[in-house]
Amino acid sequence: MSINERYLLGIATIIFASALMIGVKALLEGRRHSRPLLWTLLALAFTFQSIGLYLRGLSIGACPLGNTYEILHFIIWSTVLIVLIVGPVFNVNLLGLCCAFLCTIFGVLSLALPGIDQPYSGRLFGGDPLVELHAALAVFGYGCLALLAMISTLYLLQFNALERKKHAPIFSFLPSLLQLERLQARALIAASLFLVVSVLSGLFLLSNHQLSLAAQVKLFLVTLVSLAYLALLGLLLKHQTSPRRVAIASLFLFGASIFSLGPVDAARSRESSIPYSEKQSARND
Amino acid sequence: MIEQTEKLYVAGLSHHRTPIELRERMAFSREEGRSISIEVSQRLEQPPPLVLSTCNRIEVYGMTQTTSPAETFIEILANRRSLNPAHLLSGAYQYFNHEMINHLFTVAAGIDSQMVGETEILGQMKEAHRCAKAASKLSPEIDIAFQKGFQAAKWIRTNTGISRGQISIGNVSAELATRIFGSLSHTRVLIIGSGEVADKTAQALISRGCRDLTVTSRQLDRATLLAGKLEAAAFDIGCLPDHLALFDIVIGSTSSPQPILRKEHLKKIPKERTRPLFLVDLAVPRDFDPSLADSDGVFLYNLDDLSRIANENLEVRRNEINLCQDELARKAWHTWLKIYRSQLRGRLNKDGPPRISPTHSLRAG
Fold first, then answer.
1. Which residues fall within 8 angstroms of residue B168, CB to CB, at 6 or more apart?
2. Least-confidence region, from B45-59, B61-75, B158-172, B278-292
């Protein structure tokens, strides 16, 4: 594994953490954080992360989605990309800060947890660009889920503060309930769409290709996650549930979908025979 | 130290030591303010000063060589209102040089206001400054002091908590509505009751962009009267249960001894309606049954809740006063030094080297 790309992803995590600290400090002082500064830091971290993932992609010759470490960074990358597009367009207060929080947590976890950057063997996705596209779409869908989780967090904060009559400056900085409800519905639709496309492409691949056990486990879990989110979307559109319940369910489902990466990684590890590092040295030779 | 002949001054009366009965007799129009300015200018033999007249203060800012511009100003005011000057002088104040600038900054930042941190005073000062500049040749020292005062006020409002939160019931309600609905331009408001409280709360919502208001009351003629004033619609209170689903914000301020809105009324709201419902109960006894708060998507605030928020905000503002005063004093001192240096430069060009007086300190002004 190249030290440079891990170093770059580490720098990106430090920048996310800096953005988070600047924002939290401003909130604790009861004032709004500097939006241009926060968005600049997010964009900078995104740049470092893009270069880091690109370098790793070059070294493995595919989209870097081979282990939990890479998937976590790809989810962070997708989330920041979506937030960088959605945030300024919809002018959502504290979304950037929430994004910095999530990326810091994921970044620190990915760098600190031992063994999640497992070496893997063989050519990733069997060299099939269709499999690679399916995987990238699925993980990008997870980025949408992360956005939905962030919006849900903001919604629940504002909702509970209003219900319990809490009055602190931070709640005035949060977006309004109605704005968050609209964003919640849009993020849920986008996430469901990505997941459905990803599942359909996965099922198509399953019918035409010999997929590995890890890929099959992953496809099964993505299908479960997609069905859960589709059910949630249906309930919301039919007014069978409240936005508050959708927010709680979104957070729960996002947590579950992240934890489901564990079984995928375990299945992948069982399949591995040639360490990734050995493969790299063989390629270098 | 260098002897200073012309001093910056402020003289006036404010809510601190002058009761409202006297202040309301002192109130004057813009034209009269201009004529007072000219009279003060003639009496003090200086360019016309800037006159500031608000509900809470009547002040004059200018240049003088005398030590008691307040007496002159009060005498002019008293003559115009046929009052005893001695009666007014007991509540009058005057400040010179850096203390004048410090006072100006404190007033502009809303620290000296009755409602600490209010922002209306800044607009009034800007208007007074604009009028004074348009009407006469305002002395450059006063001009600089005011411009720096506006900058200092802006800095204070941006960087401290002096203007944080709302401190009137109407504005607290409007702020809560903003937290629920965002922009209020598309929210529908129902006001139940036609008294002053309902009127003021409606005004606060209108000032935040609310345009769709409806009034209902147990007396339809009074509801129609208030509706006319607010450019709103009115309907009979008997139709309330049927019309409730149409509104996002409902404000209750009647003197009804029984709750007007109860949980069974919410059952008539169709399931398709997903927008939150914000109930503001300003009445005592309460107009809205407290159990309404248990319904999903309903936010119920009563007078105690709103008063608690207003008091918390006021406390936050009060806690910020010392910090603001320190910062304003520092900024005022720098502005004063800048003005003083420019005065010295001007005099140097005009009269040659300045005289040095060993008895006056710069800080004493």
1. B115, B200, B204, B310
2. B158-172
Residue at B304: amino acid letter: D
Given a contact cutoff of 8 angstroms between Cβ atoms, the answer to whether B134 and B46 are in contact is no
Distance CA B269, CA B249 (A): 14
Mean pLDDT of A97-104: 89
Q: How far apart are CA B243 and CA B199, in angstroms?
A: 21
- Would you give the DSSP letter of residue B353? S
Place of tokens 């009445």: B283
> Which residues of chain A does B117 touch, with a Cβ-Cβ cutoff of 8 Å?
none
| Amino acid (1-letter code) at residue B57 | R
Separation CA B125–CA B149 (nearest Å): 10
**If 0-12 CB within 10 Å is exposed, 13-18 middle and 19+ buried, where does residue A107 land?**
buried
Is B324 one of the annotated active-site residues of the chain? no
Q: Which residues on chain A are in Cβ contact (under 8 Å) with B297?
A: 242, 244
Q: Which chain A residue is nearest to residue B311, measuring alpha carbons?
A: A167
B213 SS3 class? strand
CB contact under 8 A, B181 and A178: yes
Q: Which residues contact B94 (CB under 8 A, 6 or more apart)?
A: B9, B10, B11, B12, B68, B69, B70
Say if residue A267's pLDDT is above 70. Answer: no
Phi, psi angles (nearest 5°) of residue A210: -90, 100
Instruction: Name the band, by pLDDT with cuts 50, 70 and 90, for residue B106.
Output: very high
Residue of chain B whose Cα is closest to the Cα of A173: B179
B122-150: pLDDT as tens digits: 998 999 999 888 887 788 999 999 999 99
Residues 6+ apart with CB under 8 A from B273: B245
Q: Choose from B156, B184, B274 for mutation: most chain A CBs within 10 A.
A: B274
| ipTM of the shown complex | 0.76
Predicted pLDDT at B212: 92
Q: Which of B180, B293, B312 sits opposite A176 (nearest CB)?
A: B180
Mean pLDDT on A61-88: 84
Chain A residues touching B178 at Cβ < 8 A? 176
The residue with tokens 């990238």 is: A136
Residue B99 in contact with residue B26, Cβ under 8 Å? no
Non-local (6+) Cβ contacts of A9 within 8 A are: A48, A49, A52, A53, A73, A107, A110, A111
CB-CB contact of B44 with B37 (8 Å): no
List Cα–Cα distances, B161 to A28, A176, B171, in angstroms: 12, 22, 17
Q: How far is CA B356 from CA B2, B346, B362, in A?
A: 4, 16, 11
Asked if B275 lies within 8 A of A175 by C-beta distance, the reply is no
Please spell the DSSP secondary structure of B260-301, one letter per residue. SB-HHHHTTS-TT--S-EEEEE--SS-SB-GGGGGSTTEEEE
Q: What is the DSSP letter of A175?
A: P
Tell me if B274 and A181 make a contact (CB, 8 A cut-off): yes
